[in-house]
Amino acid sequence: MDFQGSLFEAPTIEAPLFEGVERTLLSRGAWIDIGRAWLPEADDVFATLVRDVPWRAERRQMYDREVDVPRLLHTYGVGDPLPHVGLARARGALSAHYRPELGEPFVTAGCCYYRDGRDSVAWHGDTIGRGKTQDTMVAIVSLGDPRRLALRPRLGGSSISVVMGHGDLLVMGGSCQRTWEHAVPKVAHAGPRVSVQFRPLNVF
Ligand SMILES: O=C(O)CCC(=O)C(=O)O
Ligand SMILES: [Fe+2]
């Protein structure tokens, strides 16, 4: 809680912190940062996103082909208001924290709704914009039921996986979109999960 405001102001949501966020170096200049239970007010953010985001079913170009997308999507573009103040604060905190390394802010928020274990995303890198040729970052906040995010090097080698729980942060950085791929595999049983991906300009 922030007690610095006047007594008449509505209570503000705390800003997310980076003390507990830990980096794992992958091969070829890729890395991931993980922060557990990172997002404040995650229950409220999750309920708001499920209810208020204009979810749509889509097909999508995945670097070299168009694939069915077994999940619901909506992207908040540059300047679009986000549906929860907690997400706006998270994006601000991420932009400030990563600015020295990234050199630019996170400006878009892609939202994905995995309704159950049949919803998934196939192996891909976020390489439609600059991610194909340049190092960049994609910061993901996960809400709802835990799901496994798998990562594997493009040139072959063993995959790793990160179980993303409610409120967890995962940042993919360095060459991760170019030299690694990621996926959220189907599972036999899972409840609803929403993933929010913050990206810089012209990274998809
Ligand atoms: O569900 C996730 O957290 C990952 C989503 C993803 O990789 C994407 O939409 O590009
Ligand atoms: Fe992705």
From TrEMBL:
It comes from the Bacteria. One of its GO terms (molecular function) is dioxygenase activity. Residues 105-202 form the Fe2OG dioxygenase domain. SUPFAM superfamilies: Clavaminate synthase-like (SSF51197). The keyword Oxidoreductase applies. InterPro entries: AlkB-like (IPR027450), AlkB-like_sf (IPR037151), ALKBH3 (IPR032854), Oxoglu/Fe-dep_dioxygenase_dom (IPR005123). GO terms for biological process: DNA alkylation repair. Keywords: Dioxygenase, Oxidoreductase. PANTHER family: ALPHA-KETOGLUTARATE-DEPENDENT DIOXYGENASE ALKB HOMOLOG 3. This is Alpha-ketoglutarate-dependent dioxygenase AlkB. It comes from Nocardioides agri. The lineage of its organism: Bacteria, Bacillati, Actinomycetota, Actinomycetes, Propionibacteriales.
